[in-house]
Amino acid sequence: MGAETLEEKEKRIFESYKQDLIKIANVLKNEGLEIVFDDSSISQKENSIKKRKLENYRLI
Description:
Layout: H1 6-30, H2 44-56
């Protein structure tokens, strides 16, 4: 495998971060914090999908 470009590295790091968001949100929810799904940059449907993912997430 060749050297990773800056663009590839940024994409890899961002994708990893996105995967951890649900895990982080779940930990915060379990500590009693309210998670609000109010991202105005995406549709209400997409906000609802994120909310369901969190509600159905189980730590392993």
